[in-house]
Amino acid sequence: MMNNSKNGKINPDYYKSKIPGIECIDVVKYLDFPIGNAIKYLWRAGNKSYDNLDAKASAISDLEKAIWYINCEINKISESKNVINIFEGELNSVDVEESNEISND
């Protein structure tokens, strides 16, 4: 059974430290996985330390992970023929060429 505790490993302080009153999960739970994960790594960069890395290297590691997930989303969009709304986490059925024609009217 999963522990839904508001402390410890499930909800560490580095996910609460950026914006008072808002936790990272409150934002990312509404996003596609790659975008949500990128935001998660950006959110905690500089706040989480890895055992084998100093503070600077830990921050860089999280930023590199965020870049990886952003590139993942860029690739997904580039390979799609549909317009993607990354904040709604779904594909719209409008073809990219059709969308360009509509926006040029």
Describe the structure.
With 105 residues, the chain is mostly helical. Helix content is 48%, strand content 10%. The chain contains 4 helices and 2 strands, in the order αααββα. It has helices at 24-28, 33-44, 55-79, 96-103, and strands at 82-85, 90-95. Strands 1-2 form a two-stranded antiparallel sheet. α2 (33-44) runs antiparallel to α3. The longest helix is centred in the middle third of the chain and has 25 residues, at 55-79. The N and C termini lie far apart (55 Å).
Range of strand content: 5-15%
Secondary structural class:
mainly alpha
Q: How would you characterize the largest beta sheet? A: 2 strands, antiparallel
Q: What is the residue-mean pLDDT, rounded to a whole number?
A: 76
Helix content: 40-55%
Number of strands: 2
As a whole number of angstroms, the C-alpha radius of gyration is 17 Å
Contiguous low-pLDDT stretches (5 residues minimum) are: 1-5, 93-105
> What overall geometry do the principal axes of the alpha carbons give?
flat
Element-by-element helix/strand order = HHHEEH
Number of helices: 4
The N- to C-terminal Cα distance equals 55 Å
Biggest sheet, spatial arrangement of strands: 1-2
